[in-house]
C-alpha cells in the first residue's frame, strides 16, 4: 500500500475545442480545477465532460493502457491519457496545462482526430504474418526464445498513434510511412515464420515511402507509451536491407556506406568527398552552396584533411570488424 | 578549484565545415580555465549513418575512440550532439551487455586497445553546467548579452533519447521542456526566447535524400525564432548550425517566406559574454552575417 499522502493542487487547463461541423477555427477553453496526486490525465478529460461541458469529445475505452484510444498531447508532449499521472505533468510543465489532440490539423471534434492516414499506412505494410500454413498441421511451428527476442518488443504496439503524430516527417511528407508502420513492418520482418520477408522489405525500400527519410530525431522513441522504440526498428530495417543484400544503390544507401569508405581513408570524414560519393553526378546541384562555403573557409579539400593519428589501427579494425556488404 | 581536464572528441565538422566552432571551443575553454586534451587518434563517430549500414563496426570504432579517453583517465567531452549520441550510445550498450563488450574488446585487442567503460561521456554544454556551474559562469561574465533576445535551438541528440542523456548529465533534462541552453543564455545576461521549435529537429540528417523535408524543418525553426522576436539563435550542435546558417535561401523557398537569422554556436555565445574577441570566435566563417558584434 502506498504511504504517499494524497495531495491536491490548482491547475489551469487550456483545452483545445473544435467542431468540424460548425466551427471555422479551433479555440481554447479554460478550466480551473483542483486536482489530486492520484489522478491521471484521462480523469481530467472525464471531469471536463461530466462536470463542465457534456459536448466535450474524446476517445477512451480500456483505461488500462491497452486500447490506445485516448492518446492526446499535453503541452505538445504525446500522452496516453489513461497512463499519465497528472503529478508528472505538473512537475514537468507547471500548473498551466494545454490539452490538445494528437494532430490539430486532423481534428474532427475536440480531442478526436481523423486517424485514417495512420491506418492506411499501417495497412500498407501488410501488418500480418504471411505464411503458407497447412489447414490441419501435423506439428507445431516452434519459435525459440532467442528467435522471439528478435522482435525486440515491436509486438507491444497498441496503435495509439503517439509516435506517428510526434514524427516531424509525417507532418511534412504525406507519403512517409511513419514510425508506427515501420515498427510494425519490423515486427513481421523479424518473425522467423514470416514468408513475405524480402517482398515486404523491398516495398519499404521504395523511395516514395521513405524508409530512408527518417530524420533520426528520436521523437518516436520518446513518444511511445509502450517503449516500442520505433527508431531502433527503422535502424534495424536499414541494416536488414544491407545484410540481406537487397539494398539498391541510391543517395541514402551510398551515404550510409560512404562513411565506411571515408573512415577507412582518413579516419575522419571527408565531408566534400562524402557528398560526391552519395550524390554522384547530382553533386552539381550542391556547387553554388559549396562555393559559398568555400569562400568562408568552410570546405577543406581532400588533400587538406587532417587524418586521424594511428590510422593503421582504424583500417585494421575496419577489415576485421565489418559485418555488412554493399 | 582543481583545474578541469577533459579529453576532447572534436568530431569531423569542427575540423572542416565549422572551423569557428573549434576556435570558439578553445577560446572558451581558455577563459573558463579548462584544459582540453584533443583525441587526435579518434575516428568519425559514424553520424548515425554508418550505424544504418554496419552496427558492429560502428560500435568497434566508437569504442576505440572512448578507449583513448580512458587511456588519459579523463571524461570525454563532445562538441557535437550527434557525436554525443553515438559515443554515449556505444558506452550504454557495451556497459549493459557483457557479451557484446567482450566481442568488441576481442577486436580492439587486435590493435592493443581495450574498452573498459571507465570514462564518462558528456557534451561540452553539460560539462560546463555540471562541473563549473552556471552561478560560477555568471560571475565570470564580463560582457553581459543584456540587449539580446536569444532563441535556443537544442538539437535532437542532446535531449533525446532521454534515458541515454540522463545517464550522462548530472542535471537531468526533459526533452519536452529542456532548460540547459535557456539557463546558459540567462547566465550570459541574455533573454531566452521561447518558441515551439526550440526542441525540434533541424532536418540535417536527410539533407541529401529528402532535401524538401529537411529544408521545411529547418525553415520552420528559423521562422519560429523570428516570430518570437529573436535577434539570433544559438545551438550546441554544429550539424544544426550548418543546416540553419548555410542555406537560408533554400529554407526560405521551402517555407514560402524569407527566413534568416544569425546563428551562433553555444561556445560563441558564451565566448562573447566572457569577453573573447570576434576574431577568436571565428564569426568570419558564418554564412549569415553576425553583424551585431
Q: How does CATH name the architecture of the largest domain in chain B?
A: 3-Layer(aba) Sandwich
- How many helical elements of chain B? 14
Mean pLDDT of chain B comes to 97
First-residue to last-residue Cα separation of chain B? 32 Å
Radius of gyration of chain B: 19 Å
Strand content of chain A: 5-15%
Structural class based on helices, strands and sheet pairing of chain A: alpha+beta
Count all strands of chain B and give the number: 8
Low-confidence stretches of chain A are none
CATH overall fold name of the largest domain in chain A: Fumarate Reductase Iron-sulfur Protein, Chain B, domain 2
Query: How would you classify the helix and strand content of chain B by structural class?
Result: alpha/beta
Order of helices and strands of chain A, N to C? EEHEEHEEEHHHHHHHHHHH
| Gross morphology of chain B | globular
Strand arrangement, largest sheet of chain B?
A: 2-1-3-4
Helix content range of chain B:
40-55%
Strand content of chain B: 5-15%
Distance between the termini of chain A: 57 Å
Provide the succession of SSEs of chain B: EHEHHEHHEHHEHHHEHEHHEH
Number of strands of chain A: 7
CATH class label of the largest domain in chain B: Alpha Beta
Task: Characterize the biggest β-sheet of chain B.
Answer: 4 strands, parallel
Q: Which helices and strands occur, and which strands form pairs?
A:
The complex is a heterodimer of chains A (326) and B (293).
Chain A: E1 8-17, E2 27-36, H1 41-52, E3 71-74, E4 77-80, H2 86-93, E5 96-100, E6 107-109, E7 112-113, H3 116-124, H4 145-149, H5 168-172, H6 179-189, H7 197-205, H8 219-223, H9 230-243, H10 251-266, H11 271-279, H12 287-295, H13 311-321
Parallel strand pairs in A: 1-5
Antiparallel strand pairs in A: 1-2, 3-4, 3-5, 6-7
Helix pairs in contact in A: 3-6, 6-7, 6-9, 10-11, 10-13
Chain B: E1 4-9, H1 19-32, E2 34-38, H2 50-53, H3 55-71, E3 76-78, H4 81-95, H5 98-109, E4 121-123, H6 124-132, H7 134-140, E5 149-152, H8 156-159, H9 162-168, H10 180-187, E6 191-192, H11 211-227, E7 232-235, H12 238-245, H13 248-255, E8 263-265, H14 266-273
